[in-house]
Write a structure and sequence with these properties.
The complex is a heterodimer of chains A (186) and B (227). Chain A is built from four helices and nine strands; from the N terminus they run E-H-H-E-E-E-H-E-E-E-E-E-H. With 186 residues, chain A is of the alpha/beta class. The model of chain B has no long low-confidence stretch (mean pLDDT 93). Classes of the chains: A alpha/beta (186), B alpha/beta (227).
Chain lengths: 186, 227
């Protein structure tokens, strides 16, 4: 089961359909079970049977998830692959000691892959949809995998399959989620 | 609860987005931008003036602005409409029915950011089969009011979207590589009834213009009727 975490301002919000449903749909299309849970409902560890976790994005004005880092105490010790999308990347960064700063992009942006990684293999450049007002300074030790002219676009934990991406893969880049899921299987 | 204005063209997507928004937040008004340009980049045009009747049916106020429909000027006109909605009804955010249009969504997101408004797109990359089916299941009455591509013939104009129409649209979508929802502007729709309408819209007089896979169903007279 792939745990899709809704990082929106309240459980069952109007942003749920916009940010969690499209990611869960990609997961299901890839043949996996997707379970959407609000981040306030996880507790101290992820549910048994979780094969991977995807932290979904939020509405542009919604940054409340950064105010409650204690709700992500499970993340540093998570025994499964983790992918953070936009807000999710900010959470991964913050939990591991990274910083967020002002940095906004809206719309299609050119992304350059700057470090080889299975997530982006075969891609030097691609275009992606952006929707963020905060950018991440990668945590100490994390690898920067990709960047746009504005900010870091993808990071990875040095030893584990814990990724953050700033762009929204449901728009024209479903392959990123599909590759992440394949990594979890292997 | 966030007070929201719903950007409404009169078509299925904006009316459905309004319905979803009402289930989760407070919808304070509908907002329509009436374009004089039939090729508007942002706002679809057939029957948009009839959004006033939809607003009346729903018991919601309407903020409506006209635009010449020029590419960037119409975005300024949209900004004016949102400002008016904020002044009159205190909206804190905007809802759109965008499904896959990066052009529409990113421009609306940009304006909302500049104006410090929330922006919601509850149909964004939705499962289109599921969505079209839910229109029928949840009691929306939607008709096709414009066709703009092959293979749509004149019989589609004014046709109600029911299970049979969805099946035919599905076959067309597969064969002609268009989306089931007409997201590329292949067809346009108008909502005559929705679960949140207090009364339904009845068309009393209409006309059809059609030539070479392009046509519109113009609603010339319509009124509200008790269900």
């Amino acid at each position: 089961m792939i745990l899709c975490l809704d990082l929106s301002y309240r459980p069952g919000s109007l942003a749920l359909e916009e940010f969690a449903y499209p990611i869960a749909a990609i997961v299901r299309k890839a043949g996996e079970e997707a379970k959407i849970v609000h981040y306030t409902g996880v507790g101290s560890s992820i549910p048994p049977g979780t094969d991977a976790v995807i932290l979904c994005g939020t509405a542009l004005k919604d940054t409340g998830y950064l105010d409650r880092p204690e709700l992500f105490c499970w993340l540093p010790e998570a025994p499964v692959p983790v992918l953070g999308i936009c807000a999710g990347m900010q959470v991964i960064s913050a939990v591991h000691g990274g910083e967020t700063e002002a940095g906004y992009e809206i719309g299609i942006t050119d992304i350059e892959v700057i470090r080889p990684d299975p997530l982006f293999s075969g891609k030097d450049r691609f275009q992606a949809y952006e929707l963020h007002t905060l950018a991440c300074m990668p945590p100490p030790g994390f690898l920067t995998l990709a960047a746009s002219d504005t900010c870091v676009q993808a990071i990875r934990h040095p030893k584990k399959a814990v990724y953050g991406i700033m762009f929204h893969p449901e728009v024209r880049n479903e392959w990123v989620v599909e590759r992440f899921l394949r990594m979890g299987r292997s | 609860m966030v007070k929201l204005g719903v950007l409404c063209s009169g078509g299925k997507d904006s009316i459905f987005a309004a319905y979803r928004a009402m289930q989760k937040e407070e919808v304070s008004c509908l907002i329509s931008v009436v374009s004089r340009n039939e090729e508007s980049y942002m706002f679809h045009t057939p029957n948009v003036p009839l959004v006033a009747l939809q607003a009346e049916a729903a018991g919601l106020p309407l903020v409506s602005v006209d635009t010449a429909g020029e590419k960037e000027k119409e975005l300024e006109d949209l900004r004016d409409a949102l400002e008016r909605a904020r002044e009159r009804y205190g909206i804190e955010g905007v809802v759109s029915g965008a499904i896959m249009s990066v052009y529409q969504a990113s421009r609306l997101q940009q304006i909302c950011r500049d104006m410090d408004l929330w922006c919601f797109n509850p149909l964004w990359y939705t499962d289109q089969d599921e969505y079209m089916g839910s229109l029928v299941r949840e009691g929306f009455s939607i008709i096709i009011t414009g066709v703009f591509s092959e293979p749509f013939d004149e019989s589609w104009l004014g046709r109600r979207i029911d299970d049979r129409a969805i099946a035919e649209l599905g076959a067309i979508a597969e064969r002609y590589r268009i989306t089931l929802t007409g997201e590329g502007g292949e067809f346009e729709t108008f909502a005559l009834d929705a679960p949140f309408f207090e009364r339904r819209i009845v068309v009393r007089k209409s006309s059809v213009r059609y030539r070479n896979f392009r046509g519109v169903y113009m609603i010339e007279e319509a009124e509200l009727e008790e269900r």
